[in-house]
Design a protein that fits this description.
Blueprint lengths: L7 H17 L4 E2 L5 E2 L104 H10 L11 H4 L17
Amino acid sequence: MKARHLSPLLLMRLLVLFLCFVLATPVLAVLDQGEEVPNYVRSDITGFDFHGQDLSKSSIAGAVARDANFSDVDLHGTVLTLSDLKGSNLQGIDLTDTLSDRVNFQKTDLRNAVLINMIASGSSFAGARIEGADFTYAVLDSDDQRNLCKIADGTNPKTGVATRDSLECSSQTEGYKPALPGS
């Protein structure tokens, strides 16, 4: 009897099906014995109140979280990819080192947020409030960065960094310099 080999295309399809099954299955990560971290991947958490919680090890990718309260939440190091946070309260949130690409931040309240090293390419910040937000070394689309520079104001109370400085805005409100580490 001859050995059968699976074609690369069939292997890829099986891998995709497996990943779809795994990602669709609710999973709870365990920190320490008895402590569980919630998983909100592809969840509808519209209007939820997470105020002040430590969600730094949770997953929120692909979630719909419109009008949710994430004020003073620790989300550093999480993945928010493809999430919809439109209209949410993100005041004082810690989004340091997050992968936040293709996230809808429209009309969010990002006042006093810490967004250091955040990757937010393909995201939208239209109508967001950013007074006191720290975007140091954040990766933003050039149009978003330019538009944020037009409204940048205030100083972050935790980091002491001015919003305009963190966005590396030029002296004119319409220009910007890309934020690069060490420059």
